[in-house]
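FYI - complex with heme C, inputs then prediction.
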Amino acid sequence: MKVKILLLSAAMGGSQLVFAAPPPVDPAMLELADQSRCLVCHDVEVKVRGPAWRDVAKRYRGKPEVEEVLVEKVYKGGGGVWGDDYMSSNKRAGMDNIRILVKWILTLPES
Ligand code: HEC
């Protein structure tokens, strides 16, 4: 009986978390973003120096043609879209990793 009650409260706590928290984020992608030094300036949920990645996904939803433009921009650096700040070049992350990250960022659902 005790066990059942414990399980029930764990399940309730769990479901509360699921409803309150934003949609889960692939930890492997966060790891790659961390290794690529993106997280110095970015977060999925909130603006840091760069825009929140969920906002980036929202802005370009339904515009798959921007993918390559964004890959180039992240690689070379650039500004003028989200405010006065400028994204420095991320060449060290490598084009392949940047492409994987941009594809993933563009699929992030709204929270
Ligand atoms: C030095 C800080 C910094 C780093 C490091 C950085 N960014 Fe950015 N990022 C920015 C800023 C600032 C902007 C907004 C630029 C603008 O307004 O056009 C931005 C914008 C973006 C955008 C949207 C571009 C647009 O035109 O809408 C994407 C996508 C992005 N960053 C991805 C990445 C990825 C992936 C990495 C890691 C490989 C990364 N950023 C690393 C600062 C950074």
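Residues 5-10 have pLDDT under 50 and may be disordered. Residues 59 and 106 are 9 Å apart (CA to CA).
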